[in-house]
Amino acid sequence: MPPKHSTSAAVHPGKAFRGKGKKTTDPLPLADRLKRLYISLVAQVDGGHWKGAERTCEKILRLDPNDSDAKQTKLFIHLQREEYNKALELIDNKDQPQSSENAKLFEKAYALYRMKREKDALAILDEIKGRGSETEEEERGVMHLEAQLNYRLGNYQLAYDVYLQLLDSSDPSSEEHHDIQTNLDAAQTYLDFINSGYVEAMNASVSARDIENIPPPTLPSTSLATATAGPSTHKGPAVVEEKKKVRAKRVPKGVIPGVTPPPDPERWIKKSQRTTRPGKKSKVRDARSTGATQGFTTEPPPAPIVGNIGGAGAAKGRKKK
């Protein structure tokens, strides 16, 4: 018996092989991939996108775990983001490659300076100076950090001396020279105040004996105090009390304070129960309001007519013609 042919394969001839023939592309060489990542890293650092730059550094380190530039950049990113504990962990890592031991100590001292641990940072700087600096740039960096630490600790004279040495050996047209001059002026200001300004201020102040002889200050008199004390004998213009201004937001629209008459106090009562009702007066209500009964009058009754009875009867019996 011949085998049955599948109708689905006849209708869709390529359906049975769909997904099995994927195209495979050769991955980029390691050098090209690192080059692309470094291009992105430079743009992120220049733009201040520290979170994305840190992720890019991690990608580079996954490709090349011994890349010193990526580790230095990652340390710089931690310092910029004020993640000093992570920076110290990265510095103390034994796998961290360093150009020299002094560079590692200097980075640790700078991280401690940013964490406001000045004494620990000064101890590390003393260790660096005991080892000896390898380059002039490294020596100047140590001096800058030492001056900043002494200034923060209040050792203004030591900071002034270090800044003076840096100023003498710097280029007058450089930005470093301007920064050193600013810090030197700040240290000089504090020294002047401690050495002379504070003493002059104390000498110019009032002594204890003068303070005892100074009379106590008098309280300023107010219009309320003078009114309660009694009539004043001072001849002068009378003090006019200011009227309290009415708040504009509490005045209804179209009402002028002091000009518009006040509203009817009985406006909330029914008209039939009000004492005064506007409009026409009712005659019946006016009659009832007098309190008199029907037919009552105050005039005397008319007197009876006395005359001729016959005449009266004759007059009565006449007919009209």
From TrEMBL:
| Predominant localisation class | cytoplasm
Q: Which family does it belong to?
A: Belongs to the SRP72 family.
**The keyword NAD appears for this protein:** no
Under the heading InterPro entries, the entry gives: Signal_recog_part_SRP72_RNA-bd, SRP72, SRP72_TPR-like, TPR-like_helical_dom_sf
Q: Where is it found, in Gene Ontology cellular component terms?
A: endoplasmic reticulum; signal recognition particle, endoplasmic reticulum targeting
**PANTHER family linked:** SIGNAL RECOGNITION PARTICLE 72 (PTHR14094), SIGNAL RECOGNITION PARTICLE SUBUNIT SRP72 (PTHR14094:SF9)
Name where it's found: Cytoplasm; Endoplasmic reticulum
Renumbered residue ranges of the record's region Disordered: 1-28, 213-321
What Pfam families does its record include?
SRP72, SRP_TPR_like
Basic residues: which segments have biased composition? Answer: 270-283
Which keywords does this chain's UniProt record carry? Cytoplasm, Endoplasmic reticulum, Ribonucleoprotein, Signal recognition particle
- Where do Low complexity bias regions lie? 220-239
Q: Which GO terms fall under biological process for this protein?
A: SRP-dependent cotranslational protein targeting to membrane
Q: Name one GO molecular function term.
A: 7S RNA binding
Species: Rhodocollybia butyracea
**Stated name of the protein:** Signal recognition particle subunit SRP72
Q: Report the residue ranges that make up the Signal recognition particle SRP72 subunit RNA-binding domain in this protein.
A: 239-276
